[in-house]
Design goal:
Elements (H helix, E strand, L loop, with lengths): L11 E5 L4 H15 L5 H14 L3 E3 L2 E2 L2 E4 L6 E11 L9 E10 L3 H14 L3 H9 L3 H9 L1
Parallel strand pairs: 1-5, 3-6, 4-6
Antiparallel strand pairs: 2-3, 5-6
Helix pairs in contact: 1-2
Length: 148
């Protein structure tokens, strides 16, 4: 699986002014729904919130990977936002989050979902990658880092 298979350049948003975890998740849901006409924003948002209720997807170092399975989903879709100011996210290390990679998969894509999450967790465990993402100022630059 390549990140470029699930993330389009128009789903990468730099320096977003979200003021809370809920606001960030709403922005991600909006971005995903805008990129796929068959997916409703409220459905994506509800899916992400339902997963967060099971436990925070904040993996540490200011990174979160909100994700979920969508009943009506037909393909895997992703979005990435870089926040201009980190927000409280109840992350595992209690560090506020400023980098969020959202992943929505069809309900029956269990294996693909787990493999993609593992790939993302590995990518976001690299401090050099995280540093590059934080220094980036454009969607193109961020997209290039994420899909390298």
């Amino acid at each position: 699986m390549n990140i470029s298979d699930i993330l389009s350049p128009d789903c990468v948003l730099p320096k977003m002014g979200c003021h809370s975890k809920k606001d960030a998740l709403d922005t991600l849901a909006k971005t995903i729904a805008h990129s796929d006409n068959e997916t409703a924003q409220t459905e994506v948002f509800d899916c992400l919130i339902a997963r967060e209720r099971l436990g925070s997807t904040g993996i540490g170092n200011g990174v979160a990977i909100p994700h979920g399975r969508l009943k009506s989903g037909k393909k895997t879709i992703a979005a990435f936002i870089q926040l201009d100011t980190a927000v409280d996210y109840d992350a595992i290390d209690k560090t506020p989050v400023d980098l969020l990679f959202a992943l929505i998969v069809p309900e029956d894509s269990t294996e693909e979902h787990l493999q993609t999450l593992a790939t993302l967790a590995e990518m976001f465990s690299d401090k050099t990658t995280i540093r590059k993402l934080r220094r980036s100022r454009s969607s193109d630059e961020i997209y290039s880092i994420l899909t390298a």
